[in-house]
Amino acid sequence: MPEYKAPLRDMRFLIDHVFDFHANYAALGAHDASPDMIGAILEEGAKFCENVLAPLNRSGDEEGCHFANGVVTTPAGFKQAFAQYVEGGWHGLAADPAYGGQGLPSSLGLVISEMVGSSNTSWGMYPGLTHGAMSAIHAHGTAEQKATYLSKLTAGQWTGTMCLTEAHCGTDLGIIKTRAVPQADGSYAVSGSKIFISAGEHDLSDNIIHLVLAKLPDAPAGTKGISLFIVPKFLADASGDAGERNGVSCGSIEHKMGIKASATCVLNFDGAKGFLIGEPNKGLNCMFTMMNHARLGTGMQGLCLGEASFQGAIKYASERLQMRALTGAKAPDKPADPIIVHPDVRRMLLTMKAFNEGNRALTYFTAQMLDVAHLSADAEARQEAEDLLAFLTPICKAFMTDTGLEVTNLGMQVFGGHGFIREWGMEQLVRDCRIAPIYEGTNGIQALDLLGRKVLGSKGKLLRNFTKIVHKFCAANAGHAQLAGFVAQLNELNQQWGDLTMKVGLAAMKNPDEVGAASVDYLMYSGYIILGYLWLRMALVAQAQLDAGAGEADFCRGKLATCEFYFKRLLPRTAAHRAAIEAGSDCLMTLPAESFAL
Hints:
Elements: H1 8-18, H2 21-28, H3 35-53, H4 57-63, E1 66-68, E2 71-73, H5 78-87, H6 106-119, H7 121-140, H8 143-155, E3 158-163, E4 179-182, E5 188-198, E6 207-214, E7 227-232, E8 234-236, E9 242-245, E10 248-253, E11 264-277, H9 283-319, H10 343-375, H11 379-414, H12 426-434, H13 443-456, H14 461-476, H15 484-510, H16 513-548, H17 553-570, H18 573-582, H19 586-589
C-alpha cells in the first residue's frame, strides 16, 4: 500500500502565497486563524492522518464492515481512530462555538478533510457526512433543534447522515414514496425505505441523526412536495442524551466494488418519529445545504485518491528498473534504468501531478469562497461568493472526480502488472475512486445542473462572473516575460467559452435536447479552462519566487514545468470537447431506442 505523506509543502504554497489565506482571514475577522495556528493545525493533522488513519486503509478494505441482526460493526481500529479524532478536536474544527465548535474558517476544515480522505477515504465518510448534517441543521433548524442536536454532533458523540435515494428512484426525488404523517404532539411518523445510505449504521457513535426526505399526506406532486425531517436512531431523553430507540433499522449493507470500510446501508423507517426541519414542502431546498457540502467533499475524493496514487506511483517509478533510456543509459551502474526516465512514464506522472495540484488549487479557491460567503460583513461580497460557489460546485464534483479516476488509473498503469495485484494497494485506490463520479448526483446530473440551471438558467450571469475574473487576470499579465504565451492561450479560451455558451443556448431554444447533449463536454471544457487559470496563478507565484531568490528553487521550477505540461498536453483537450459540443444532439437522438437491442 502506498505510504501516505501529507503534501504540506504544496498546501503551504497555496495557503501562504497563491491565495494568501492569512490576509483573507484578517479581512474576514477570523483572527483566531493566525499563521502559527494554521501551521500547528497542518502539522498535527498530518501526523494523525499519516500515523493513525493511513495504516487502517488497506486492512479496512480487506475486512470491510460486518452486518448481523441489524447491527453494523466497522473494521478493526476504526472506532478507536474516531475516538482519537474527536478527542483531538478535529470534528468541531470549523463548527459554531455556540455549540462547542472551534469556529475556525471552513477552508481549514477542508484542508484537514483532504488529508483524511487521502489517508483513508472510507473512514473519512463517517465524520464527513456528519459535517453536512450539521450545516443543514444550523442553516434551517429551529432553536430547539439546534440545541438538541448540534452540540452532540459537534462533539462527535452523535453522527449524521442524509437519506434521499429509494430503490425505484435515484436522482428523480420527485417520485419518492417515503411518507411522513403528522402526529398530535407535533412530530411526524416517517415510514419508507432508503438505500445507499453512507454511514447509515455503525458503531462509532452513541447515536445517528438521519436527515430524511419524505412527503406529507397533502404534498403537491413532484419535487415541490418534498419535506425534510430529522429522524434520530435514538430519541433524545429529558437530559438530552440518547434514549428510547426510534423506529428506524438497518435492513442490510451493500457489497461494493470499493470504499468497503464505509457502511452503505438500506434503512427502513417504520413509523419512526421525525421532526420537520424547515418549511413543509421545502425540504429539497434545505437538503441542498447538505448536498452542496457533500458534493464538494465528493469532488475532493478525486483529489485525495489521486494524491495517494501519485505518491505510490512516483516512488515506484523512481525505483523500478526496466530497459534503457532511448537517449542512452541513465544508470550505467545498474542493469537497467529506473522507469521514470521513459517519456511515456513521464507523461503519466506529469498528468497525475498536473491534475492533483490543479485540483488542490481549485479546492482551496472554492474553500476561500466558502469563507467569504459565511464570514464576510459585506452583503455584496457574500452574494458574489455565493454565485461563484453555485457555479463552481458542480464543476468541483464532476471534473475533480473524473480526473481523479483518470489519475488513479494512471497510477495503477505506472506499476504495470504489479498495479493489478492487490498487495501493492494501487487497485484499491481505483476501486475506491470509481464511486465518486456516481454518488451525490452522477457527473451527468452535475453537468446538467451546470449548463442548464447555473449557466443558461442565469442567462449567463454566473459564467460571466467567472470569465470576468479570468479576463482581468489575463489583461494584467499579458506582458509577462516568461508566461505571456500561456496567458494569451488562456485568454483566447476564455473568450471562446462565452461564444460557445451562446451557441449552445441558441440551439437549446430550438431543441432542449441540445443541453443534455452538450452538458458533460461543456462541464469538462469548463474545468480545463478553470484549471488553466489556476495553474497560471501558481506559475506566476513560482516565477516571482525564483526571480527574487525566495522559496525552494526546485519546487518552483517543478511548478513551472508542470504548468507548461498542462498548457501543452492537457489544456488542448478543450478542442475535442468543443467539437463534441458543436456536433449537437442529432447523432445521439436519431437512432430509435429499439435499435439498441441485440
